[in-house]
Design goal:
Blueprint lengths: L6 H4 L3 E14 L2 E14 L3 E5 L6 H8 L7 E6 L2 E2 L5 H11 E5 L10 H11 L4 H14 L15 H13 L5 E5 L7 H16 L3 E5 L3 H4 L4 E6 L2 E7 L6 H13 L2
Helix pairs in contact: 4-5, 4-6, 5-6, 6-7, 7-9
The protein binds adenosine-5'-diphosphate and magnesium ion (MG).
The site of magnesium ion (MG) has 2 residues, from helix 2.
């Protein structure tokens, strides 16, 4: 079937496109250029890490990419829509539809079950109770927590809590998963669990962007963008992608030899 060509492979679909975006904060007479000029393009299905020293602009860029904030100058096109000049309400709508957030501190509701935490974004999307529960359950099954639907966060391990948060990020079927230091509050062993999950999500076609200041975590991503002083310092394909399964085995071997 030589005539059958997968167009997705030829025409990579651009999901994120920033053109010279800047972000300026004014504090009294002081002007802070958090982002000077950032131009990046990310295609559907990419797995990217944003790195850089503290103060380099990572969070500012994440907030703009995640539609939590708008740039002072330049354009940002998300999934074909120019979101640079949207109002607060328009941004909220885009956010709910296009972005799944994963935070360092999980941000789960402590009194709600895993199922209810995961179903939460669907309430805002106006989906019926029955459908919400079905979709949330499926999302939990997808992160390997089908048997923990009724547990509350304090009845789960740190890694399981983060997996619930990832299920919540995925339940709306967003265009991008944005993870800000997703392993920042986890021990080494649990970090692999989460990186393994991201790996599987990436293989299924999800687009993942994570912010991290840890080199070994960034190396799970397939592309590493380094920021410095509000500019992109380097933007490189990762030639040394860490395989979480092999890495876990390697570390267990190291541990056993002590
Ligand atoms: P990173 O996440 O890489 O540590 P940030 O994006 O948080 O960096 O910050 C970039 C720069 O912008 C820093 O100098 C920081 O102090 C400044 N900055 C960030 N947010 C604000 C704000 N809301 N008001 C004023 N300055 C800010
Ligand atoms: Mg930051």
């Amino acid at each position: 079937m030589l005539h059958f060509i997968n167009l997705n492979l030829i025409m990579a679909k651009e999901i994120i496109s920033t053109n010279n975006i800047s972000k300026i904060y004014r504090m009294g007479s002081e002007v802070i250029e958090a982002l000077k000029s950032v131009t990046i393009s990310i295609n559907k299905g990419e797995y990217v890490a944003f790195m850089g020293p503290s103060g380099s602009g990572k969070s500012t860029l994440m907030n703009i990419v995640g539609c939590l904030d708008t740039p002072t100058g330049g354009e940002y096109v998300l999934n074909g829509k120019d979101v640079s000049n949207m109002t607060e309400n328009e941004l909220a709508e885009i956010r709910n539809k296009e972005i799944g957030f994963v935070f360092q501190t999980f941000n789960l509701l402590p009194r709600s079950s895993s199922l209810d935490n995961v179903a939460l974004p669907l309430i805002y999307a106006g989906i019926s109770r029955y459908e919400r529960d079905e979709m949330a359950m499926q999302a939990l099954v997808n992160v390997g927590l089908g048997d923990r639907a009724k547990h509350r966060p304090n009845e789960l391990s740190g890694g399981q809590r983060q997996r619930v948060a990832i299920a919540r990020a995925l339940v709306n079927n967003p265009s991008i998963i944005l993870a800000d230091e997703p392993t920042g509050n986890l021990d080494t062993k649990t970090s692999y669990e989460i990186m393994d999950l991201f790996d599987q999500l990436h293989k299924k076609g999800n687009t993942i962007i994570m912010v991290t200041h840890e080199d070994d975590i960034a190396h799970y991503a397939h592309r590493i963008v380094r920021l410095r002083d509000g500019l992109v310092e380097t933007d490189l394909r990762n030639e040394n992608i860490t395989n979480p399964v092999l890495e876990k085995a390697r570390l267990e071997k190291v541990k056993a030899s002590y």
